[in-house]
Design a protein that fits this description.
homodimer, 429 residues, alpha/beta, Rossmann fold, 3 domains, 5-stranded parallel beta sheet, 45% helix, Histidinol_DH_CS (chains A, B), NAD (chains A, B), Histidinol dehydrogenase (chains A, B), histidinol dehydrogenase activity (chains A, B), metal-binding (chains A, B)
C-alpha cells in the first residue's frame, strides 16, 4: 500500500505514478483470438465443440449439447435456496425499476421553417451477453447485463457462459430466468464472442455483445467491433473512498477490502483529510485481512495497488477523485451530496456512511457494469442506452424545402457535390 | 446496377448477395498504424512533424507550424463569400437547435426502501474531431461533429485536419469558428488520432475522438479505443429510396446519384412497387449521369453497387429496408410517416417527396454522421450522447441499508465475496 500526502514535496510524482499504474499486463492475444474467430466463422458449430473441448475441460457430444435446455434451467432454479431466490428477486426488481426510469423519450418538432423533424429510439433486435465461468461466474452480473436489455425492449437476449468441467452454476441459471434471458449457451472465451457476432448453425448472430470477460474475451470483442456493437472493455475494478474521521475505520477498511478481494489487479484508494484516521484504517485493513477467505487475493491487491492519500481538505479530495476518474466512488462525509456536486468523473457514486459499494453491486438498482481504469472520463455504466439506438427523421414539403433548400444548395456546391445540390434545386424549379 | 424482383425465383439469393456486398477491400493497415501510434507516443511532436512531411507533401518548419493560428482562422473566415457564410450560419443554427433538443435530463428517485438514487449526465472535458483533408474536406462535417460536442457542454474541442500541400480550406476554418472549436491542428492520418489520444508536447490529450477518415484513421481509432472513447467506424455511405410511381423519376434519380457521387464504394438502392417507374428512374439516372462533374465516381458506384428492387407492396419495401438497415432512408410515398412506423433500422430517415437526403446532409438539423454498412441495427448517428457520460449514484442511511442490505449480504456470500458481504453486515450490527 502506498501512502501519499498532498502536502509532501514528492506528491506530484507519486500521484502521477498512481495514475499511470495500468494494473494489467495485457497479454498479446491478438493473433490467438483472430485465429479462433476465423475458425468459428469457417467451421461454425464444429469449431465451437472442438474449442470447448480444448479450453473448458469437457467434451460436448455434439453442438446440441452446447444449448442449455429449459429443463436444466428449471432444475438449476429449483436448486437455489428460497432466501437466496428472494434476494435475487429483490435485486432484479430494483434493477428493473431503476433502468425503466432511464428510458428516454422520442423527440418530434415542427419548426418555424415548416420542417418536421425528430428522433426515435428503438431497441436492438438481439443481443449477446457474455458471462464469465468458473469462480468469476456472478449471478448478479447476469441480472445487471440482461435486465437493461429486456427493459430496453430487446426481443432476443442470448447468454454465453463457459462451463469448466461441464458444470453450470444454478444461481446463474436462476438469474438468467428471472431476467428473462431467451437462450443460454455453454460456450466461453473468444469462440463465444465469435459465435455471437457471426453466428453458427446453432447460434443466430446478435447485434451487440456485452458483458465482462478475460483478456481473450476482451480482445475478441475488440476484433468483432463494427460487425456488432460492443460495450466498453472492462479492466480491473477499482474504488476510491473519500472519508472523514467521523467514520468507523473498520467500515472503511472492509470497503477497501471488498474491492481488493475481486482480484490481485483491483485497486482500493482511501482519500482522507485526517492523518490519524488514515492510520486507523490502514491498521483495520491489516486486522481484517486474515479473516477473509480471499485474503491472499485481497492482500496482494492492497499491497500492490492500494493507496492512502492524505489531503488538506475535501475540495482537494474531489479534485484528486476527478483525476482518478474511478469506477466506484464512495463519499463518506457529513454532506456527501455537496462533495458529489464537485465530482465530474466517476462510474458510480455511493453517498453516506451507510452506503458501501457492495450495496450497488447487488441491490441498489443502478448498474454494476461500470467504466474502469480512468475511462469514466468518457464512458458510462451499462444502461438501457446500450440496448437502444436512435433514428433521426426529417419531413419536408415543397414550402419547407423552399425555406432551407437554397442554403443546402450553396453548401453542396461549395463542397463540389453537384448531385447533392441538384437533388434539392430540381425540386424547387 | 442490379435489378431484383421479390416475385422472382432467384430473389433470395440475389438479396443475400446485396446484403453481403461489403463494398470495401479493407486494406490491412494494422501494422503500419501501430507503428505510427508507437512513434507518436515515443517522440511526440517530432514524430508529427516528420510524418506530416512524409504524408502531406509539406514540411512544417517545427511543431509550432502545426497549430492553426487565430489570424489564419480569421483570414479563412473572411475569405468566405457572404451568401455561403449565411448558408453556413443557417445550417449551424438548425444543427444547434436540434441537438439542444436532445439534451437528456438527470434522474433522482427516492424509493420506498428509503434509498435515494439517481443518474447524472456530464459532458466530457475534451474531445478531438478528425476532419478529412483534400477533396473530402467537408465544412458541413465540421459543423456536424463540433456542434453536438459544444451543445453537450464539452469545454475543449480540438480539430485535426490534414493539409495536403499545406493548404487549408477556408470554409472548414469558417465552420470551425462558427461551431466554437477551441483549437485546430494541421495533422492528419493515424498520427492525428495518436496525438489526440496520447497527447504530445503541443497537443493535449482528449477523452474521445470522433469524425470520419480513411482506412488509416479508422484503424487508428480502433487501436486507441479504450485509451479514449471513439465514435463508430464509418464505412462507405449508402441510401435506400422507397418511392412509388407518383414521384418524378428525375428527382429520385438525382437522389440516387447524390449518394453515388460520394465515392465508388457508395451504394444507392431504389425500392419501388412499380416496374414502369423503376425503368423510368434507371433511364433518368443514365440521362443525368453525364451532366455531373463527378460522373466517373457516381457512374462507377451505380454500376458496381447500385440496385433497383421491385416489390409487390410497400410492406415488403419496409421489410427489405429493415434488412438493409441503411444509413440513409428516403420514403417518398403518399403517407411516409405510416411507412416509417414500420422501419426498425435506419440511421436517418427523410420523409416526403420534397425531402432529399441532401437536406439532411447540410441544413435540416439532425446529424449527418450516421451508422453505415448495416450497423444501424445497433448504432446511431452522432448526437449529444456521444459527448456526455453518466454517473449513477445511491445514497443510503442506516434504515435504508437495513431494508436492502440483507439481500446484498446473501448474494455476496453466494458469490463467495465475503468482504462484500461483511462491508454491509458490519454496518447493520
Amino acid at each position: 500500500m502506498k501512502r501519499l500526502d498532498t502536502s509532501a514535496g514528492d506528491f506530484e510524482a507519486d500521484f502521477a505514478a498512481l495514475l499511470d499504474d495500468a494494473r494489467e499486463t495485457t497479454a498479446r492475444v491478438d493473433a490467438a483470438v483472430a485465429a479462433i474467430i476465423a475458425d468459428v466463422r469457417a467451421r461454425g458449430d464444429a469449431a465451437l465443440v472442438e474449442l470447448t473441448t480444448r479450453f473448458d475441460r469437457w467434451t460436448p457430444r455434439d453442438a446440441g449439447a452446447l444449448h442449455v435446455t429449459e429443463a436444466e434451467i428449471a432444475a438449476g432454479t429449483a436448486a437455489v435456496a428460497p432466501d437466496l431466490m428472494e434476494a435475487l428477486d429483490l435485486a432484479a426488481s430494483r434493477i428493473e425499476a431503476f433502468h425503466a426510469a432511464q428510458m428516454p423519450k422520442d423527440i418530434a418538432l415542427h419548426d418555424a421553417a415548416g420542417l418536421k423533424l425528430g428522433l426515435r429510439w428503438g431497441a436492438l433486435d438481439a443481443v449477446g451477453l457474455y458471462v464469465p465461468g468458473g469462480k468469476a461466474s456472478y449471478p448478479s452480473s447476469v441480472l445487471m447485463n440482461a435486465i437493461p436489455a429486456r427493459v430496453a425492449g430487446v426481443g432476443r437476449v442470448a447468454i454465453c457462459v463457459p462451463t469448466p468441467d461441464g458444470e453450470l452454476n444454478p444461481l446463474v441459471l436462476a438469474a438468467a430466468q428471472r431476467a428473462g434471458v431467451s437462450e443460454i449457451w455453454r460456450v466461453g472465451g473468444a469462440q463465444a464472442i465469435a459465435a455471437l457476432a457471426w453466428g453458427t448453425e446453432s447460434i443466430a448472430p446478435v447485434d451487440r455483445v456485452a458483458g465482462p470477460g478475460n483478456a481473450y474475451v476482451a480482445e475478441a470483442k475488440r476484433q468483432v467491433f463494427g460487425r456488432v456493437g460492443i460495450d466498453s472493455i472492462a479492466g480491473p475494478s477499482e474504488v476510491v473512498v473519500i472519508a472523514d474521521a467521523a467514520n468507523d475505520p473498520a467500515h472503511v477498511a472492509m470497503d477497501l477490502l471488498a474491492q481488493a478481494e475481486h482480484d490481485e489487479s483491483a485497486q482500493s484508494i482511501l482519500i482522507t483529510n485526517d492523518a490519524g484516521f488514515a492510520d486507523a484504517v490502514a491498521a483495520a485493513v491489516t486486522a481484517a485481512l486474515p479473516t477473509l477467505p480471499r485474503a491472499p487475493i485481497a492482500g496482494e491487491s492492497w499491497r500492490r495497488h492500494g493507496a492512502v492519500i492524505l489531503v488538506r481538505d475535501m475540495a482537494e479530495a474531489a479534485a484528486l477523485a476527478n483525476l482518478l476518474s474511478p469506477e466506484h466512488l464512495q463519499i463518506m462525509t457529513a454532506d456527501p451530496q455537496a462533495l458529489f456536486a464537485r465530482i465530474r468523473h466517476a462510474g458510480a457514486a455511493f453517498l453516506g456512511r451507510f452506503c458501501p459499494e457492495a450495496v450497488g453491486d447487488y441491490v441498489a438498482g443502478p448498474n454494476h457494469v461500470l467504466p474502469t481504469g480512468r475511462t469514466a472520463r468518457f464512458a458510462s455504466g451499462l444502461s438501457v442506452f446500450d440496448f437502444l439506438k436512435r433514428t433521426t427523421w426529417v419531413e419536408a414539403d415543397r414550402a419547407a424545402l423552399g425555406k432551407v433548400g437554397p442554403a443546402a444548395v450553396a453548401l453542396a456546391r461549395a463542397e463540389g457535390l453537384t448531385a447533392h445540390a441538384e437533388s434539392v434545386a430540381l425540386r424547387l424549379r
